[in-house]
Amino acid sequence: MVTKTKTSTNTQSSTKNKTQSITVAEISQRIEHHLKFTLDEQINVDQKPAYWRATSLALNDIIVEKLQNTKARQQQSEVKSVNYLSLEYLMGRLLSNNLHNLGLYTNTEKALKTMGFELADLCEQGADLALGNGGLGRLAACFLDSLATLDYSAMGYGVHYQHGLFKQSFADGQQIETPDMWREFGSPWEICRPESSQTIPLYGHIEEVAQANGTIKSVWHAGKTLKGVPWDVPIVGYNSDTVNALRLWECRADNAFDWDTFNHGDYLQAHQQQVAAETVSKVLYPNDEHEAGKELRFVQQYFFCACSVQDIIARFENQYGALAEQSHWQTFCEKVAIQLNDTHPTIAILELMRTLIDNHNVDWDNAWAICQKVFAYTNHTLLPEALEKWSVALFQRVLPRHLSILYRINEAFLNDDVNALWPNNDDMRARLSLIEEGHEPKVRMAHLCVVTAHRVNGVAQIHSDLVKQDLFPEFDQLWPTKLTNVTNGITPRRWLKACNPLLANLLDSTINADWAKDLNRLSELKHLADNADFQQQFMAIKQQNKIALTKEIKKLTGITVSPDAIFDVQIKRLHEYKRQHLNLLHIISLYRQLLANPELDMQPRVFIFGAKAAPGYKLAKEIIYATNKVAEKINNDIRIQDKLKVVFLPNYRVSLAEKIIPAADVSEQISTAGKEASGTGNMKLALNGAVTIGTLDGANIEIAEEVGDDNIFIFGLTVDEVKALDAQDYNSYQYYQNNAEIRACLDWLDTDYFTPGNPGELSSIKESFLAGGDPYKVLADFQSYADAQLALDKAYRNPSQWAKMAILNTALMGKFNSDRSIEDYVQNIWHLTVSK
């Protein structure tokens, strides 16, 4: 045997997390208390939801006490705090993760066994807190976990969406969207904080009022107000005494309803204000293809930012006193950091300026200096369509005061900063202006972030380099030290310890350290990568996880798959640049080859997809439809002898990812080089022993550097080669004409083979490649991708070689820990200290 007994340095014997001393009997008593007095349930009731809720409430009692102690400790030590503003948080389910972080999983498991329940079953109860869309929201959740784990003072801010994104199902292969009722009957994890509610003004007009000293003061007369009610979700640090909070804002009308109108019998009209207000926090990313949707989305962002800024100030004043004294603003800069997670929270800059000037009588220069000191900005994309721009007309209508402040910031920036480096250069002024002129003038939100923030970071080294070279080269010339890099990371607590307990137990018994708090300790596995006994243990766990996933696939889709096949996984938001349609094109090619030669020498393969398409994203929905129709044909074709299966799992979310990732053999990270900022799914899959097939894009580059060329399958164009193709006026038709396999596969989509009786239903995919110009170079990368897949197939059929590759991927993921990311932010951007 290669495993060894855990030493006293391991998690279970650590003394820092005092909750680990809570006994099985105490946990049982707490659960029974909530069953009887909170839920009014008899203890012998055989009902999983009741026991899940009682267990969650019992745990939350412990968590809230730790939250209160954390607040007191942080206030007493007067440490600097970071306020993380993000429109997305993909929190997932919290019971298992919180139990692991508190060190109470084993004792709670024992307590529930005495009651006749399996904790693993109860952890499946309850809805995901799915308050996000993809990697951006999951990254934010990982960062909050790490901030608490590392004992930093932090508050996350977001929106208390009633429905989050949407719940996805399929009808004849088409995506169907329905509301996600994540808290239909409340959530045991959240705490309403009505005492911290905020009143938020919008619309109206500005009045210029002469002051006694001869100056002019702008007074905003709002035409409407909204009420922001905060709900706090405690964030539990792992093996730590710290519990921070995620504060989510729910929008309500300032008045519940019109009593007079109600009494006159117009019941619907009486509730109009409340209905309109509730719409603001109804869903994540309301469809903005129409003007009403654009305005709702804009109001949602402002509401979230304004509530958060006012709350940050209120919390500061509660600790340090009213900000009437000018000296207190210096303290504010020393004690408060605000991180903007992408451009969605940009209006927070203008809101803080407005609040300082209008409400606290801070002069312009000092207000601007304060904003520059407290704000930092994370850029997550190079895609022009994702860099938000709002029409000046919309700004003028909804936020007239903020627009006037924006104009003044822009004027000072162009006259002072731009003109100093490029005097009398109108072209450069137009390029860098916060206002994009044209038929419909627009506000460039990313420009405002860069001009204001004292640090701007990308999220992988290649991405940060491209931010400097391609996205903001002039800003980099203006401020050579402002643009920097912080490579993303993931929390190993959720993405290995909680979601893959079999592997976590093996690591616990192999590594003489708490690897979940120091992920670099996984490197100790390197010397075991060639050990036949350890390889057998590692791959046996992978096989058990695959068997568990086959059952989940059968339950969700009715499709039977073999755990002996390669499980090839692509799970991420559906977008052309992520190139799910490259994967699909290769699947069609494999199917063609199998039909031509059913005895084709290939390892059986199951391609597993999980993705949601934005409701207004037509081509993304058509890619889902095409994948499902191709899957339907392949999965029912007995001629290919089950050598190929395709599964598109519905309603991809955190809790589903937790089941897929431990079972994955192959991680598909196939975005067009230069388009994926970082990725975090690539890290999660590799950490759990999946081998990556990917392009030199985002964090794939850094993963390749860590694991070595022999343990990853890299293919396709580089960033420079993509640029060169664009410069040569890329012609996708050439690939179609010169590659017989590409031509045959695309032409097949024009027939009714996959859609009997409906020829051409899948032609939109072909059209996107040809008439659409193939903007993401799918056809250019197809042959390289197919060749890499052949090499992958060959490697998998050498069990010892594959096991070594899988082990090394787990062993060498230490860099991609969100704890390391947070320490990078702390050292280079936020300058926090730990609360004692």
UniProtKB/TrEMBL annotation:
SUPFAM superfamilies: UDP-Glycosyltransferase/glycogen phosphorylase. The keyword Repeat does not apply. The keyword Glycosyltransferase applies. The modification N6-(pyridoxal phosphate)lysine is found at K684. GO terms for molecular function: glycogen phosphorylase activity; pyridoxal phosphate binding. Its cofactor is pyridoxal 5'-phosphate. It catalyses: [(1->4)-alpha-D-glucosyl](n) + phosphate = [(1->4)-alpha-D-glucosyl](n-1) + alpha-D-glucose 1-phosphate. GO terms for biological process: glycogen catabolic process. One of its GO terms (cellular component) is cytoplasm. Belongs to the glycogen phosphorylase family. Phosphorylase is an important allosteric enzyme in carbohydrate metabolism. Enzymes from different sources differ in their regulatory mechanisms and in their natural substrates. However, all known phosphorylases share catalytic and structural properties. This is Alpha-1,4 glucan phosphorylase. It comes from Cognaticolwellia beringensis.
